Each structure stands twice: as C-alpha cells, then as structure tokens.
C-alpha cells in the first residue's frame, strides 16, 4: 500500500508462493483434483535480511487458522559452501513456529537459503520444500543479502515529511489473501498475521491495489497548551492521541482508506495558542488533505455520576446531505462503542446558542469543528468515548493502552461499516465494446488493479478493462473474457497453466498444488510425461517421487566397482574418462586399481580408480613419476631427480651437468656427456674461456696465431676494456684481442701493446695561408672505468683513483676500498650498511641503504591492535580475495583472524610480526598460492618446497604453519633457543644467526653467503614491496 508520507520500507526477503491449500478451480479435470488435508502455509517471515556477528536471526513459519503444531524443524544451507544446518523451533504458538539461530563469530559469514520445513500436526508428519513451492528465502551473515525484496513500497514527499533521515522503518509481510502488512517489528508482523485470522478480520479484509482512496482525518482532541479534561491521574489530550493512533493503525489495513491525523504529538495544531485558532487549524488541515470524513476524538467530563458514550453530528440545516451522512457515521461508531459495554447516551445534534447562522441563514451547529467542516464540504463529528471523570468508565475503558486500543479499533470498525454501507466505491461504464470503471469521485481507474465484487480487474492507461494475456513488470497474468483475473488452473489450446492467488502465472519452476508438485517452463507451460533434470512428471504433469532416471553411474557389486551407462552398457578392456578423471576397466568391466601394464607401459590407478597423471606418487616405500598421460617414467631424469629402470626415484643421485672440476689445483670443464674442450674457446655463461691441448683452463697471457689475449685468474677472457698486467696497462677489444702500436682514443699503446703514458696524439692542420703547421693538441685525458684482473677501479683524468671513500660517477654512488677497488654487495661504512649492486648492471652502484633487524619489537607500533590493523590494511590494499572458505578450516576465517595469529606467533619468539606477514604475502602471492604448495598445507613460506613439483611441509592449521615460519626466521636471525616446541623440521639445517637482517635473507646479498632464498634481491624486495609500505598505512 502506498503511503503519502515518507516511509522507508524494509521488505521481508522472500519470493512468496502464496496459497498452497486452495481447492482447484472448476476447469481442472476431476481426475486431477487431490485431497487437500495437509495444513496450508500462510506466511514466512525472515526477521533480518542481514545479520552481523555476534547476532541472532529469527524465522517464523505460519500455517492456516486452526492448525496446531506440536513440533517443527527448519533446514537451511550456506549457498556458497553447500553446508546444511537444521534447527528445531524455539517457540510454537498454535499455527506459528519460531526458529532462532545465533551466529557468534566470523566463521558463519556467508549467504544462507531456507530449504524445507518438517512439522507435526495431529500426530502426522509433513514436509514442505520451499524451492519446489516457488519460495526463495535468503538472508546473509556479515554480508549484504542480494535477494530482491518481493514488495517495495515507495515513499512520497509531502509538506509534512521531507527528510529521509526521519523516515520510519517497518517490516512488510504478504499473507495468503494478498494483504500487505507494514509494521515496526517482526513481532507486529506476526501479530497482524494472527489478527487477520481472528474475530477482527473485518478491519483487514481488503488489500486493494486501487490508486484512489477515501480520505479520513482523525482529530485527537486538545493538545499542547490545552490538556482537556483532567481526572484519575491523567488528562484528555494524552488519551485521545493514543485512541486516534490505534484507530489510524486499524484503518490503514484497509486498502481503500487514506488516514491523516491533525496532530501526532502533544502539540496544538499549526502552533495555535488559543482555542479558536486551534480548532480552525484542525479543520483547515483536513480540508488541505481533501478529507471525505472528519472524526474528532474526545473524552467527556462532568460530575462523577455521568457515564457512557455519545457522538455529535451536523444538523440538517444548510447542506442537509452532509448532516445525513454525519448522522449515519455517528450512528455506526456509536453502535461499536455500545457493543463494548459503554452506556448508550445516543447520537446528538447541538445547535448554536449565540444566534450564529450558516450562509443560508439557518441556525449553525454549536461545535466549531462541526460547522467549519460542513462549510468545507465534508461531515465532521465529535466522538465522546467515555467520561474521564467517572471512575467506572475510566477503569473499564481508559486505564490501559490495551483498553484505549479497543476504543480506537471500535472507531475504525464503525468508520469502515459506514463506508461499506453508504459509500458507493464506483460504477462500471461501457464505452462501445469496452468497459471502464469510475470511482465515487468521478476518477477513472487507470494503470491499476481493482477488486470489484470479489474479483480482480486490470485497467490500462486509458482506463480500459483488459482481457487475455497481460505482462506487467515481468509477471504474466491471464484475464478472462469478462476481465476477471484468472487464478488456479487454466487450459488453453491443450496446454495447462497455473496461476497463484495473486494472479501471477507460475513459470520456470516447480510448484506444489495441493499434494502434487508440477513443473512449469519459462512460458508457464506445464510439463507432462517427461524428465525435468532427474525428476519425472507423469501424463497429468505430477511429479512421481522415487522414480529413478536412467543415468551413467557407478555401481558396486560384491566389493567391485563398475560404471553403468544410461543405455545399460559398460566399458571393457579400455580407458574411459568420467568427470575429469581417467579410469581403466578390465575384460569383465571391473574398475582397475593399483598397477596396470599395457603394451610395456606401466600406469598406476589410485584407490578410487583414478589414473595418476602429471605427478609423483608414493607406492609403498618407492616414489614414481607419471606423465600427463599417466605413463610411468623409467631410466630418466625428471628435472633434478632420477628414476631407475623400474621407475623408482633414486634419492641422492646427482644429475650429470656441465660443471667445473678442479684436479690437482688446475681447472677443466666437464660436460654432462663426459666430454671436455681441448685447444679451443668455449663460452660458459656470459664469459669466454680457452682450454689447452689437454683440456686445462688457461690463465694469463695466451698467444694464438700472432694474436695476444689475456685470461684473468678465474680464466675469463679480458674483453673491451683496459686492464693492468703487472705494472703495465693493456687494451683488449670486444673479441679479447690485444691492441698494439695504435691509438685507443687519446691513449697510445706500443708494439708490445703496453700503454705509453704521457704520449700525446698529433693533430695536423692547414693554416689559412696554406702552410703546414704542426700544432699539437692539448689532449685531455678522460676519466674512465678500468678493469684489471677482473676487478674494477675508476681512473681520473690525472691518473689518480679514489680510495676508502665514496665517489659519485654517472649519477650513481660507488665505494672504493683502501686499494681503490670498487666494492660490491653489502658494505659497512661509518657504522651504516649499504648495498652496492652485485653482478647486475650498473654493478657496484649504491641501490639500498640500511638493514632491518628481524628480531625485536614491531616497527609499526607498540600497540597490538594498530600493528594488526596495518597488516589487515596492507592485505586489503592488494585487492586480493581472502580465501576464507579454505583458511577457516585452519582457524583463520577472516584476514583479521589471520593477522591476529601472525602477531601472536611472532611475538612469542621475539620476531617482528610485520616481517612474518610480509614474507607470507610474498611467498603466497597474498594467500592466492598457485605453485606446488597448496593452500590446504597451511605452509605460508614454502618450507621444504625445494623446486619442481615437491610441495614441501604440511601443517595441521594456520597457527602451526605460521609458527614454523617464525621459527625458521629466528633460526637465521638469532642464536637464541626457541620458546615453543619445534615445529619447523628444517630448523637445525640453518646456520644459526647467519642472516640477522631482512635484507640478508637473500643468499646473493648476504655477506656470509647464507640465506633463505637464492633469488636476487629476495630480502630487499621483501622490505620494499611488502614491509616498508605498512609503515605509512
């Protein structure tokens, strides 16, 4: 129902399949009608679309009036994991069962759907599957529920309510008869549903879809400065406001009535400060709302003996029609009040006592709200409910909110009875061959549904009654030839359709009708004599429970498995792919397990029969490798691991590789096939080496075909640079050939190839007179890098070099030792550590300053929560999805829980938590894994994963995996003992204290040559990319 004041609605999250217990309509064949003894579902209410932990969800399932439940159980499941849960009813109130679920922590995070309910009535047990009834009920824990609400009632702005922040919040429920209820709590929704089955049903019998409604203005008497009558410890203004509110609540359940109140708080109307203005403002308010009826609610006062109820209505002077309607309205309300037991003081007219007249000169009514209402064209009455000054009236009718509610509802009944008996809602009008409906106020029904004489009709934008198929906002209806909306079964052109009591055609789902379940396709056509998935429906369209569809499936016979196809056949002496796995079946069709030999090729089938492929597999005490086709490898190398002729891995056997060998102090290069180079060059890595006639590596001077070369002490050929040999400097070109008797830039080398210092290059020029002048340029000697015996130094233009100091060269800083050699790797200078690029261009350049201790207190903060929050933010900043579905099994259902574990485990051993967290993120790609190590191992640092397909260590839970990582870090960073039992199986393999700093975890950067990983810049990248960014979060 649309309200004309701003009202924010929270719709109960349901796809509501309305009536399950109605009899079929007459056009269903008798043979298809079934006994309908099972209790009918009335309503389902989910308290909260989303629950935040710790929190409680309530679900109420209600059945038809007269049903007495003795027990009930609700089944629901997590739609992501598929895990199912069952909960017994926590409370049963005759036909309604209340289910209460408590969610204590983040492990319950997810979206849940209600599946079915099992209940007991009169000793019989029944079960209802919500999905097959078309009901899709969902709610979420710590998430936003994505299910669309069924009924969203939008608010409209008026002069009185314009601030959305002040909007009321209510619950909405839809019952079997289509009534829409809006309340402030789930309890009120349930109470309303129960109320609609009780003796007060005439209050809420109509849930219309009409766009035009009668306007009733309720006027709670007095207020603000004016208390009205005062007696029995209370006052009139307080009680009339409550009666009016209860009356309004009851009236609003009727779809044809729009209700307003002149005041909704303890105030005068329109800010009036005197009675005359206040009364005028009340009627003016009613006129502004286009009131059809004005009901002013009061309590009487007099001597203590006076008691009972009376109602004043307009006289018959001037607009006698209004007086007549007022009398009817007054009589209707008075009857309801008398029915409560109030003494009948009658309905009355009171004439003006000061000679005041209406415009026609006739005597005016005494009461201002009555004669002003008449002048504005609508009947106004004053209801004096009881005497506040009478002790008996007060005690019986006014002394509690419950009694005041009874008075308000009696007023509402009287108003509704008057409307039903005296207000003609509208009339049919024929327009040629078409029909239209005009309301009592002359407005035509347009773009709306209207219930007329118990039947529903739809009128288009021109007011024309529709017939035939009608699609509104994706919902399909059928309107018969007389325009009435179809419900129940409909057979058209030999096809059966079914329409709910709301008129919606059932489509694309299973739907229970009585005791039978039917399937309707996307066009609403009932399926018959066919399979819907794994369910069969007979020629009448009814589902046949228990009928098994012939499908491919596994069958176990006498302890052996075989696979039967839908046509009854099965595979023999062949492979068959089932799902994503390959299986082999023997000559009798039995599934093979264990070893299998086919045409000299061995395969291994695990205990489930699935072929082992593309992986290592332990069989007994031996480990074997099977390729992507499942073939066992034999007598070959699998990466760095050797399997013998029987396919078994030989631990410890070293793979032949090209490698250097030192024999008696001399080096030679052994190829994997056993050969070695003699009297020739060989490029190894990025360097060239020369081997003599016996295969020994040459060092020092080498002459080949009158060309001189120089080989460093490590055997590498000097190329494309200057190098010192003894006290002389030589230049070798890009092919390593020594230059002789020539100029290299501005430097001259003699016939022996030695640089001649000081010799200047001549530059001959012709002067302007054509004379030859021999002018000697003042050639400037340039500063440049020089490689001598494989080590670099920087020669200045004057021949000097820097020693034991820094020098800024080509936009980079370099450090030179006491002999002038360029330093690479980590170097301590002046108490500070610096990293100088090693083996990567520009070699020797300063790329990183400082080191970070692994042990100690966190550098993020001294506050535990701050440290954890920064780690959480670092993960969130990565944009990666937290794998709660996997890590919850290990005790870390959220990133917050994961970071809590990291902090606790790190602090116990004195390791900085952010180092542990950063390394785990680096090693796992922010917990996405993807390599040989799987998330189920809870191995967050690749412990034991030595390459290839070796997965490494397995831990029982997240805490153990983090603890092992912490212990391994402590092994590198400290020589102190562990405070907890050793979990890290590789702890004793580490050289203790060999990497006290994060930056030294990389072996190539570690001055001692030890470390966690062999990759370049391992520790430095860990700091730069995963740890240091947390400092500024």
Question: Could you characterize the architecture of this molecule?
Answer:
The protein is an alpha+beta fold. Strands 3, 5, 6, 9, 10 and 11 form a six-stranded mixed sheet that branches. Strand 22 and strand 23 form a beta hairpin. Helix 3 runs parallel beside helix 5. The protein is elongated.
Please sum up the structure shown.
The protein is an alpha+beta fold and 1033 residues long. The chain contains 13 helices and 62 strands. Strands 3, 5, 6, 9, 10 and 11 form a 6-stranded mixed sheet that branches. Strands 17-14-18-21-19-20 form a 6-stranded mixed sheet, with helices on both faces.
Write the layout of secondary structure elements.
Elements: E1 7-11, E2 41-46, E3 50-51, E4 55-63, E5 69-78, E6 84-88, E7 91-93, E8 96-103, E9 110-121, E10 124-129, E11 138-141, E12 168-174, E13 180-183, H1 186-195, E14 214-220, E15 230-231, E16 234-235, H2 236-251, E17 257-261, H3 275-288, E18 293-300, E19 309-312, H4 320-339, E20 344-348, H5 368-375, E21 380-387, H6 391-398, H7 401-422, E22 426-431, E23 434-439, E24 448-452, E25 455-459, E26 468-472, E27 475-479, E28 488-492, E29 495-499, E30 509-513, E31 516-520, E32 530-532, E33 535-537, E34 553-557, E35 560-564, E36 574-578, E37 581-585, E38 594-598, E39 601-605, E40 615-619, E41 622-626, E42 636-638, E43 641-643, E44 659-663, E45 666-670, E46 680-684, E47 687-691, E48 700-704, E49 707-711, E50 721-725, E51 728-732, E52 742-744, E53 747-749, E54 763-766, E55 772-775, E56 784-788, E57 791-795, E58 805-809, E59 812-816, E60 825-829, E61 832-836, E62 846-849, H8 864-878, H9 884-887, H10 895-909, H11 913-924, H12 958-973, H13 1018-1027
Parallel strand pairs: 1-12, 3-11, 14-17, 14-18, 18-21, 19-20
Antiparallel strand pairs: 2-4, 4-8, 5-6, 5-9, 7-8, 9-10, 9-11, 12-13, 15-16, 19-21, 22-23, 24-25, 26-27, 28-29, 30-31, 32-33, 34-35, 36-37, 38-39, 40-41, 42-43, 44-45, 46-47, 48-49, 50-51, 52-53, 54-55, 56-57, 58-59, 60-61, 61-62
């Amino acid at each position: 129902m649309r309200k004309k004041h701003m009202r924010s609605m929270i719709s109960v999250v349901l796809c509501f399949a309305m009536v399950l217990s109605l009899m079929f309509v007459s056009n269903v064949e008798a043979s298809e009608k079934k006994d309908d003894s099972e209790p009918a579902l009335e309503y389902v209410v989910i308290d909260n679309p989303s629950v935040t932990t710790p929190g409680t969800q309530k679900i109420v399932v209600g059945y038809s009036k007269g049903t007495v439940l003795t027990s009930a159980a609700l089944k629901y499941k997590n739609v992501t994991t598929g895990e199912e849960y069952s909960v017994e009813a926590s409370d049963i109130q005759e036909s309604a069962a209340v289910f209460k679920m408590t969610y204590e922590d983040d492990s319950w995070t997810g979206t849940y759907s209600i599946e079915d309910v099992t209940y007991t009535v009169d000793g019989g047990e029944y079960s209802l599957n919500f999905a097959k009834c078309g009901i899709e009920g969902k709610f979420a824990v710590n998430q936003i529920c994505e299910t669309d609400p069924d009924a969203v009632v939008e608010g409209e702005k008026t002069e009185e309510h314009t601030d959305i922040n002040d909007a009321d919040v209510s619950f909405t429920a839809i019952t079997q008869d289509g009534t829409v209820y809006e309340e402030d709590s789930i309890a009120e929704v349930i109470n309303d549903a129960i109320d609609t089955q009780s003796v007060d049903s005439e209050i809420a019998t109509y849930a219309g879809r009409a766009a035009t409604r009668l306007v009733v203005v309720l006027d709670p008497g007095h207020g603000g400065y004016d208390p009205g009558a005062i007696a029995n410890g209370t006052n009139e203004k307080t009680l009339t406001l409550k009666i009016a509110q209860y009356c309004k609540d009851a009236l609003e359940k009727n779809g044809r009535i729009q209700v307003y109140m002149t005041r909704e708080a303890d105030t005068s109307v329109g800010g009036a400060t005197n009675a005359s203005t206040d009364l005028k403002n009340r009627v003016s308010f009613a006129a502004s709302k286009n009131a059809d009826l004005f009901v002013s609610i009061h309590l009487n006062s007099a001597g203590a003996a006076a008691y009972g109820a009376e109602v004043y209505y307009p006289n018959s002077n001037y607009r006698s029609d209004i007086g007549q309607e007022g009398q009817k309205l007054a009589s209707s309300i008075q009857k309801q009040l008398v029915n409560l037991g109030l003494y009948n003081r009658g309905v009355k007219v009171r004439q003006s006592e000061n000679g005041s007249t209406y415009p026609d000169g006739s005597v005016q009514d005494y009461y201002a709200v009555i004669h002003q209402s008449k002048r504005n064209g609508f009947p106004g009455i004053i209801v004096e409910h009881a005497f506040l000054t009478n002790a008996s009236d007060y005690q019986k009718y006014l002394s509690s909110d419950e009694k005041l509610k009874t008075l308000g509802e009696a007023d509402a009944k009287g108003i509704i009875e008057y409307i039903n008996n005296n207000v003609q809602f509208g009339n049919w009008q024929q327009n040629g061959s078409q029909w239209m409906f005009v309301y009592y106020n002359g407005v035509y029904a347009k773009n709306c549904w209207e219930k007329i004489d118990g039947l529903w009709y739809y009128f288009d934008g021109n007011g024309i009654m529709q017939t035939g198929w009608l699609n509104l906002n994706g919902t399909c209806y059928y309107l018969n030839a007389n325009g009435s909306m179809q419900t129940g079964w409909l057979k058209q052109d030999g096809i059966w359709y079914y329409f709910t009591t709301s008129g919606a055609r059932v489509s694309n789902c299973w739907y229970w009708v009585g005791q039978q379940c039917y399937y309707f396709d996307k066009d609403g056509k009932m399926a018959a004599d066919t399979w819907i998935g794994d369910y069969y429906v007979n020629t009448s369209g009814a589902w046949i429970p228990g009928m098994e569809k012939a499908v491919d499936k596994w069958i176990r016979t006498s302890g052996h498995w075989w696979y039967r196809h839908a046509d009854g056949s099965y595979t023999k002496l062949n492979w068959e792919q089932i799902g994503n796995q390959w299986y082999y079946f023997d000559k009798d069709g039995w599934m093979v397990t264990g070893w299998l030999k086919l045409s000299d090729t061995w395969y291994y089938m695990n205990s489930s029969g699935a072929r082992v492929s593309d992986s290592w597999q332990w069989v007994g005490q031996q480990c074997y490798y099977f390729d992507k086709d499942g073939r066992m490898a034999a007598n070959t190398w699998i990466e760095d691991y050797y399997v013998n002729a029987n396919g078994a891995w030989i631990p410890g056997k070293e793979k032949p590789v090209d490698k250097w060998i030192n024999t008696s102090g001399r080096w030679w290069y052994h190829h994997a096939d056993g050969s070695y180079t003699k009297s020739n060059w060989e490029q190894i890595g990025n360097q060239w080496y020369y081997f003599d006639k016996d295969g020994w590596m040459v060092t020092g001077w080498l002459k080949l075909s009158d060309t001189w070369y120089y080989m460093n002490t490590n055997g590498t050929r000097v190329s494309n640079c200057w190098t010192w040999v003894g006290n002389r400097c030589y230049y070798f070109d890009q092919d390593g050939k020594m230059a002789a008797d020539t100029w290299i830039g501005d430097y001259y080398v003699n016939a022996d190839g030695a640089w001649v210092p000081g010799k200047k290059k001549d530059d001959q020029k012709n002067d302007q007179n054509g004379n030859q002048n021999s002018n000697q340029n003042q050639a400037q000697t340039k500063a440049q890098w020089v490689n001598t015996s494989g080590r670099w130094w920087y020669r200045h233009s004057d021949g000097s070099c820097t020693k034991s100091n820094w020098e800024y060269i080509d936009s980079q800083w370099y450090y030179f030792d006491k002999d002038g050699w360029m330093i690479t790797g980590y170097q301590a200078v002046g108490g500070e550590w610096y990293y100088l690029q090693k083996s990567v261009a520009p070699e020797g350049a300063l790329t990183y300053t400082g080191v970070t201790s692994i042990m100690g207190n966190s550098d993020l903060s001294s506050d535990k929560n701050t440290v954890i929050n920064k780690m959480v933010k670092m993960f969130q900043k990565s944009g990666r999805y937290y794998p709660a579905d996997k890590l919850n099994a290990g005790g870390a259902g959220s990133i917050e829980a994961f970071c809590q574990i990291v902090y606790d485990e790190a602090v116990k051993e004195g390791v900085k938590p952010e180092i542990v967290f950063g390394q785990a993120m680096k090693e796992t790609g922010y917990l996405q894994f993807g390599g040989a190590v799987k998330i189920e191992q809870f191995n967050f640092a690749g412990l034991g994963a030595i390459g290839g397909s070796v997965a490494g260590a397995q831990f029982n839970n997240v805490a153990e995996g983090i603890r092992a990582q912490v212990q391994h870090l402590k092994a590198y960073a400290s020589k102190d003992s562990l405070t907890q039992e050793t979990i890290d199986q590789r702890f004793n393999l580490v050289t203790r204290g060999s990497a006290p700093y994060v930056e030294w975890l990389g072996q190539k950067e570690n001055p001692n040559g030890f470390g966690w990983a062999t990759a370049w810049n391992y520790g430095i990248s860990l700091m730069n990319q995963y740890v240091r960014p947390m400092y500024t979060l």
